[in-house]
Fold each of these.
Amino acid sequence: MNMGVDVKAFEIRSGKPFLDVLYGQSSQRLPFWFMRQAGRYLPEYRALRADKGGFLAMALDPVAACEITMQPVRRFGMDAAIIFSDILTIPMALGRKLEFIAGEGPKLDALESMAEVANLDFSQFSKLEPVYEALRQTRSQLQKEGFSETALIGFCGAPWTVATYMIEGGSSRDFVKTKVMAYSDPEGFSALIELLVEASAQYLIEQVRAGAEALQIFDSWSGALDSDSFMRWCVRPMREIVTLVRAACPDVPIIGFPKGAGYNYQVYVQETGVNAVGLDSQIPVEWAARSLQNFVPVQGNLDPLCLLAGGDSMILAVEKILVTLGRGKFIFNLGHGIHKDTPVAHVEQLVAMIKNHKVGN
Ligand code: CP3
């Protein structure tokens, strides 16, 4: 198999089930965490948000970000806490204006041509300092509150996904501007992707220095690309980031999440050198068990809307995931971020099912 990047054979036993599985080792219990586990479905988050104002203000306030990161861990005892931040902090640190408008999502000043990429630089990279400070505080808070088996995750968006926000000026359904830019000016677009590779690697390395014990890279819109473009704009940049981060932080596992990549999940796993892969809900778990889990540990993939609905459909879906993936190297998660209207009672029921699962069955 061509792994592209040399994956270190980890021989570390961390005492944290989530990290042990990422290191390719067995674990006493099935580790779990949920994407967007901190957020609006939690009453304690809504209370703090009403108090503190906007999302970005909270994400850039280390005390608030630490508190919000801790909230779901206190309720549910996850095996990993993901730092409360956003993938769009990188465009902000590259000098782009960023706002989150309630009910509308993120807004950025859009890049109109790839000639503008030459004006982007790292002179405002210190805007990311509050994220590092939040990581330092959260790492010590986890210890202080007795969550000694909960690992801390740092993250960023993958270059392709972040580029879509920078070019579209916010969320998009079909990525028309970005895809036309990539097809019509591949050299110019490549300059933006390369800048984002460098920025992402630097950001992730600093997150590790501040206390992140594992990293996840979100490629939320990788499913929008044809196969050749997927290789060029998702796989290749991801492999470069993995190489750069691993050179600086050889022991820190990296999880890739190429949401929507479908058939291309396999080449992604083989060519990027990630330690583990996050599965979206469209990936059939039987296929993942046969075709991915023999290469790397997998994480996923309950449909967040199945969790929102709850009831028998949820129980059946969870059992199927546990039976099919729970025998191999596996971390339970959702296939995408938790929905804001999810009843806390459904999350409690899911957590009870995961905690009851016997590893090895
Ligand atoms: O998982 C976590 O708990 C950590 C925090 C986290 C957030 N965003 C907080 C957030 C993470 C890991 C992200 C990643 C992120 N952000 C992605 C990749 C994952 C994915 O969802 O595909 C993307 C594409 C973004 C960009 C983004 N941020 C959008 C499109 C939105 C608006 C949509 C929405 O849910 O409101 C955000 C805002 C955002 N990021 C919120 C949170 C908790 C909502 C803020 C609020 O109104 O309270």
Amino acid sequence: MTTKTAIITGISGQDGAYLAALLYKKGYRIVGFVRSSGNTDLRGLDYLNIRDQVIIEECDLLDISQIIKLLSQYKPSEIYNLAAQSSVSLSFKQPIGTFHFNTISVYNLLEAIKLIDRNIKFYQASSSEMYGKVNSLPITEDSVLHPVSPYAISKASAHWTCIHYRESYNLFVCCGILFNHESYLRNPNFFVKKIIRESIKISRGELDKLLVGNIDISRDFGYAPLYVEGMYLMMQSDKAADYILCSGKSAKLRTIIEYIFQKLSIDKNRYQISNELYRPNDIEDIFGDSSKAKQLLSWDYSLGVEEMLDLLLAEELKNTHL
Ligand code: NAP
């Protein structure tokens, strides 16, 4: 049997590392695209012990000729497109750069597939943020998109680009519409990772207070190592489609802080609201329904938010040296 090749863009990110580890276990040859081979942080691959199992290639996803060259060279059967400017907060400061990269990179990848080999399967990292101003909950694959940040607008545009290529050119394109998912490898700028890291510092006397923005909003949080299994399952399905991956429940950010503080025996008032950390617009509450993925893909997910926080806290404590 010939080994299947999978390309992962955004291999240096949280999901890229966990997905690479999963695909390696499944026997794939993995090619990871990075924007700059010289200074990309690949500590996620090191942490999961798969750095040597991944072929790293520099590829500017805004340059279609580089993509065409690498697809011709590696002949992948699957491409997982995870590369994106992924921060909602940063997207308010860099709206044009966020929109430009998060949309044109997707066009370039899909055009390259159309030109090189229409049998290559394509996964796009869509986001629950696309739903934004919600009319009714839970969110399903049929809910109306109403993005409320430059990040969400870019992801909605890329999402519709994917559907267009699936419907117009019959390409195998799946969009995984993922709700927030966390892990030890999450970038420290993101809420849950920041709260856990900084709370540990407070508990060790290294930090006085946690500075936070609007913590009266709620989000549906899940566990990244289990979400990448859903990505893989989508690509093994006979029919390309879009699927929501979520936990099915939302938790208020304030409750998450209180839970971590209580676990670390930190006094309740050791956080401070900073108006500077508020966003110009935000989703108040959002949670999804992943019945479609559970029924059609047999995606298995049942972790509650507290169980997930316990896992993350334990891993962070294990890796935080005094
Ligand atoms: P992440 O940790 O922030 O990783 C993002 C990846 O994209 C990194 O490898 C980064 O490379 C790359 N990237 C960013 N800007 C780039 C650019 N201009 N050119 C080339 N590469 C660029 O994100 P993640 O949490 O793994 O998420 C993976 C994907 O899922 C993203 O598309 C994200 O938007 C989407 N998503 C994530 C969540 C979530 O909760 N995690 C939820 C829904 C959707 P560098 O190392 O070079 O910066």
